[in-house]
Amino acid sequence: MLSREERTPFSEWWWTVDKPLMGAILALMLTGVILSLAASPPVATRIGLDPFHFFSRHVMFLLPSCLVLLGVSFLSPRAIRRSALIIFAASIILIVLTLAIGPEVKGSRRWITLLGVNIQASEIAKPSFVVIAAWLFAESTKRPEMPATTMALVLLMMLVTLLVMEPDFGQTMLILMVWGSLFFIAGMRMIWVFGLAGLGAAGLFSAYLFVPHVAGRIKRFMNPASGDTFQVDTAMEAFYNGGWFGLGPGEGIAKRSLPDSHTDFVFAVAAEEFGIILCLAMLALFAFVVIRTLSRAYANEDMFSRFAASGLAILFGVQAAINMSVNLQLIPAKGMTLPFISYGGSSIVSLAYGVGMMLALTRLRPRTEVEASGRADAMRSYA
C-alpha cells in the first residue's frame, strides 16, 4: 500500500485521482473489448479479412490509449492548457491536409494516412478545442475587458467551417452543442444562447435544403418508406430479438448483415447478444462518468478547471447519447462512435486524451496550489 506521507508523483496522483471515475472508464474499456470480439468477426469475414482483424486492432489501439489516459491524468491544469493548444493547432493542420490530399470516401474527406496509420483529425480536434474554449470563457469571467468570448467564437467558426467542408455534419453538431453548453455554463446572457441556438437551427435547415446527404437522412428518418433504412431497421430487430437477457455471446443475427456492426451499431449487437440488461448497465456507466465529473467540476474553485472538466464531460456524454439514440431510431442516422465501445483508432485515442484531462482536472488539489496557479497565470498575462 502507498503511504500518504510519500511525496512521489505516483503517490500524489494515486491519493488525488477520482478512483470511482477511473474505475467506470476502465469498465467501459473492458466492455468495448468484449463487444469488439462479439461484433467484428462477421464484418471482417465479409470483406475478406482475418476474422479477428478488427478485434486485434481494437486491442492494439487500446494499449497506447491507456498510456495516453494515464499520462495525461498526471498533468497540471496549466500543462493541460498548453498541450491542448499544441494538439489543436496540429489537428487543424491535419484537417486542412485531409481536405487537400485525403482520399474521398462516400463523398467525404475525413481521413489522412500518415506513416501507414489512418488518422481522423476531427476526432483529435474535439477535446483540445473544448479545453481552449473553456480557458477563453474562464478568462472572460475574470477579465471582462479581454475579447475572450469573441476569440472562442472565431475558433468555433474556424473549426465548424473545416468540418462542414469535409463534410462531417455529425461532428459539427456535436461541437456546436458542447460549445453552446460551455457558453451557457460560463454565465452568458440568455439572449445570446437563444440567438446561437437559432443560428444552429438555421444552419441545419440550410444543410437540409442544400446538402442531399443530410436531406436524405432526415427524410428517411421522418418517412422510412422514402429510402434505404436497412441498418436502422436491422438494429431495431436486434433489440427485439435480444429481449432482457439476450440470445447469448456469439449468437447474434444482426451482426451477420450489418455493415457497421462493429462501429456505429455495436450498441445493437450488445442488445441482441447480451440483452437490454447490458445496455442499461452501459448507460449507467456513461451517466456515472458524466454526472461524477460534473459534480467534481462544480466543487472546483478554479474556473478553468470547472469549465474544462464540464465541457469534456458534456462532449463524452452527448457523443454516447447520439450513438445510442441512432441505434434506437430516436434521431436520424449519423456516423458517431460509442465512446470506448465502437471500433476506431482515432476515436479511442482521442477519447483517452479527453478522459485523461477529465481525470486530471477533477483531481483533489490543495487550495494553495490552485491559487498559486491562478496568480502565476495573472502575472504572465499582465507582464
From TrEMBL:
Transmembrane feature ranges: 21-39, 59-76, 83-102, 114-138, 145-163, 169-186, 191-211, 265-291, 303-322, 342-361
GO cellular component term of the entry, any: plasma membrane
Pathways involved: Cell wall biogenesis; peptidoglycan biosynthesis
Family matches, as Pfam families: FTSW_RODA_SPOVE
Keywords (A to Z) from UniProt: Cell cycle, Cell division, Cell membrane, Cell shape, Cell wall biogenesis/degradation, Glycosyltransferase, Membrane, Peptidoglycan synthesis, Transferase, Transmembrane, Transmembrane helix
Glycosyltransferase is among the record's keywords: yes
Main location: membrane
Annotated InterPro entries: FtsW, FtsW/RodA
MF terms (GO), sorted A to Z: lipid-linked peptidoglycan transporter activity; peptidoglycan glycosyltransferase activity
EC number(s) reported in the record: 2.4.99.28
Domain of life: Bacteria
Cell compartment(s), UniProt: Cell membrane
Catalytic reaction equation(s): [GlcNAc-(1->4)-Mur2Ac(oyl-L-Ala-gamma-D-Glu-L-Lys-D-Ala-D-Ala)](n)-di-trans,octa-cis-undecaprenyl diphosphate + beta-D-GlcNAc-(1->4)-Mur2Ac(oyl-L-Ala-gamma-D-Glu-L-Lys-D-Ala-D-Ala)-di-trans,octa-cis-undecaprenyl diphosphate = [GlcNAc-(1->4)-Mur2Ac(oyl-L-Ala-gamma-D-Glu-L-Lys-D-Ala-D-Ala)](n+1)-di-trans,octa-cis-undecaprenyl diphosphate + di-trans,octa-cis-undecaprenyl diphosphate + H(+)
Enzyme class at the top of the EC tree: transferase
Record membrane topology: Multi-pass membrane protein
BP GO terms, sorted: cell division; cell wall organization; peptidoglycan biosynthetic process; regulation of cell shape
Family per record: Belongs to the SEDS family. FtsW subfamily.
Protein name: Probable peptidoglycan glycosyltransferase FtsW
The species this protein was found in: Bradyrhizobium amphicarpaeae
